[in-house]
Design a protein that fits this description.
about 375 residues, alpha+beta, Aminopeptidase, 13-stranded mixed β-sheet, two-stranded antiparallel sheet, 12 helices, about 35% helix
Amino acid sequence: MKAKIEVKSVQSKQDLLRFIKVPWWIYKADPAWVPPLIADRKKLLDRAKNPFYKHAEMEMLIAYQDDQPVGRIAAITNENHNKFHEDNNGFFGFYESIDDPEVTKVLLDETRRWLIKKGKDGMLGPINPSTNDELGLLIEGFDTPPFIMMCHNPAYYQTLLENYGLNKVKDLYAWYLDVRDRELPEKLTRVAAIVTSKYKITLRNIILKNLDQDLELIREVYNNAWSRNWGFVPLTSDEIDYLANDLKQVAREELILLAEKDGKPVGFSMTLPNINEVLIKIRNGKLFPTGIFKLLTGMKKIKTVRVLTLGVVKELQNIGLGAVFYLETIKRARKLGMAAGEMSWILEDNQPMNSAIEMLGSKLHKKYRIYHQKF
């Protein structure tokens, strides 16, 4: 007789560690899985220190069978999202499960109950824990490791979620480009030159030691440029400070670009070294005693990058400034010895951006999906 599945909420530090470590059980035989650093996961989930939780709530749940964790999920509310989009959705995130529809059912049932108690009338996910973090369920591209801040999961997750009754809302694309010995497209090079000359655009990179001076400019550009995008939620000052403090630990300032026109910021692009090349070798998720040496030595050998974010203020979004950013980023990445990069995530229906990326010679190598269910 099959053992009963029991769902318990995270109440203690021991429970939190167990929640964080569920993936080590799920992915133990998956060579493409990149273990997160346990300390980073604790920080992300810390309701006291992460400013996201100033306007959000989260209930973390673990499914057990014979006292063994077999799945997990988080039920999440985000009032800033609801205010900006004028909707009443809740969210689910950090979903993991063995290949058993009953485990997924009890986890999502409990998530629904919690969100309904909070007055929500539907749920979106997977979102971990916001659209400014990791999101989406991988549905294509399982054979290669994810890039920094991108998700990975078994192929059977799609069947489990869709059989439960979740419906596709949006697919997100991840494009891969090998930049070694590649001729840059003449058309894009010509467009970039015309744009910078005609509109008097200048590019400069952010100086990390002076980052605080530029953070508010970056936040203004970000909240303007992405405001029309599906799923966008404006970042608060606290949130961008928090994210900047995290990302500058791995950032290369040559790859963080600000576009200016008449002395005012009009575009922003951030490309990060793909630290997952190193983390995949730290299988226990711990920096000590040996992980720190793998990290320090591995950081010098990283050969890929991810274009994490690229945006242009609304009034200049149709002039081709994206081409300027991409071409300059490729040139700089080459100088740093990078071999390839991922541009992600891009909305499936963002045709201008997808076309421009494809024109560079990129290939679509991963797809992610966001689901919704109305209560």
